[in-house]
Specification:
2 helices; four-stranded antiparallel sheet; 23% helix; alpha+beta
């Protein structure tokens, strides 16, 4: 069972990872027109110190956008770059699979979150070309 983590108890690496993915959510998004600003991340931990993430709507979101929650794959002390890649991948899957939103996308091609030399990156899968660090997508949009 996962228990919520208070903001003051959250590991700094996980906070940085959530902030980075949250910044990127406003860029290169295609599909349904939704305002994601009412979404708030949730962070939880289980008895084995594995982290779970998700989001809830703190306000009204156009189009019935839903909450989600998943977890258990990475430990509390995971490096921030690993947490960024994991969170980005989960978020991308949630948006595309359940919300019909392609993110981040350049046309028809989704960028993929990857760990490259210890840095969390968005990568164009055609040629495995790094596009931007996760959290810095706005600089390339």
């Amino acid at each position: 069972m996962f228990a919520p983590i208070g903001a003051s108890d959250a590991p700094p690496g996980w906070v940085r990872a959530l902030e980075a993915v949250g910044r990127d959510l406003q860029f290169l998004r295609y599909g349904r027109d939704v305002d994601l600003s009412p979404l708030h991340w949730t962070l939880k931990i289980d008895e084995d110190y594995n982290v779970g993430i998700g989001w809830i709507a703190a306000g009204k979101i156009k189009g019935g956008f839903g909450a989600f929650e998943t977890g258990g794959a990475l430990p509390w002390d995971a490096p921030a770059a690993e947490a960024m890649v994991w969170i980005a991948d989960l978020t991308q899957t949630e948006l595309a699979g359940y919300q019909s939103i392609q993110w981040p996308s350049r046309g028809w091609q989704l960028l993929l979150p990857r760990l490259i030399d210890g840095v969390a990156m968005w990568v164009d899968p055609h040629g495995d070309v790094p596009v931007a660090a996760i959290g810095e997508l706005g600089a390339t949009a």
